[in-house]
Amino acid sequence: MTKPAVVLLSGGLDSATVLAIAKARGFAAHALSVRYGQRHAIEIERAGALARALGAAGHAVVDFDLRAIAPSALTGGDAVPKGRGVGEIGHGIPATYVPARNTIFLSFALAWAETLGATDIFIGANALDYSGYPDCRPDYLAAFERLANLATKAGAEGGRFTIHAPLIAMTKAEIIRQGVALGVDYAMTTSCYDPGADGRPCGACDSCVLRAKGFAEAGLVDPLLARFGRESRPNRG
């Protein structure tokens, strides 16, 4: 029987790559997405398409509106920062940080994993080419893994949960190359924090800048931008 795992799937570049990695490692990957009131809600649509395309064993969407208790630029509070250079991104915690988001998401993943009889959870956290979120750091993920093994019936009865973050020490270019090798169609993903109604990326938010940097350094054309008739040009300021 194929071993089950839960994969947090946002519909973005990183999580799509992680889903492909989990599948390549032989897991029956159950994808989990969260509709939390994010302004870029198109990512839920993309997550569903990616789950089907990459052969997920299942795809669940949890509705948990964070706008009332965890305001952020991503949930329609402040404006999404735009026009920052690559050198500025990752210094300080930006307005797009959603309070406790990864802790909440991982808690949902943990609950589903325990229900499925799974002890493996995958998340696309990255601590190199990222926006400076504290809940993407290796020590945070290690702490959550300890919590998972203390706070669950499965853990108390001798099970051992593992939080997998295979992208944690990779550059965006390395992530893209890995995904391409595993057959990920990045035209299906969305990274933009403030996309148009049709999913067209703004090209100026931190996530767009980091994505453009990754494709440029990988020597590849971003198929999502090609789809909209644009080239990938990172802001190197």
Concise description?
The chain has helices spanning 13-24, 42-53, 101-116, 138-150, 153-156, 172-181, 206-218, 223-227, and strands spanning 4-8, 28-35, 58-63, 120-122, 162-164. The protein has 237 residues and is of the alpha/beta class.
What are the SSEs and their pairings?
Blueprint: E1 4-8, H1 13-24, E2 28-35, H2 42-53, E3 58-63, H3 101-116, E4 120-122, H4 138-150, H5 153-156, E5 162-164, H6 172-181, H7 206-218, H8 223-227
Parallel strand pairs: 1-2, 1-4, 2-3, 4-5
Description:
- By secondary structure, this protein is of the alpha/beta class.
- It has one domain: Rossmann fold (3-Layer(aba) Sandwich), CATH 3.40.50.620.
- Helix 1 links the parallel strand 1 and strand 2.
- Helix 1 packs across helix 6 and helix 6 crosses helix 7.
- The radius of gyration is 17 Å and the shape is globular.
- The C terminus is likely disordered.
List keywords for this structure.
237 residues, alpha/beta, 5-stranded parallel beta sheet, disordered C terminus
Count, helices: 8
Strand adjacency order, main sheet: 3-2-1-4-5
How far apart, in Å, are the first and last alpha carbons?
51 Å
CATH class: Alpha Beta
Oligomer: single chain
Report the major sheet: 5 strands, parallel
- Strand percentage, roughly? 5-15%
The 3D shape can be described as globular
Q: What is the H/E string?
A: EHEHEHEHHEHHH
| Poorly predicted spans | 232-237
Say how many strands there are. 5
CATH superfamily: HUPs
Q: Domains counted in the coordinates: how many?
A: 1
Proportion in helices? 25-40%
Mean pLDDT: 92
CATH third-level topology: Rossmann fold
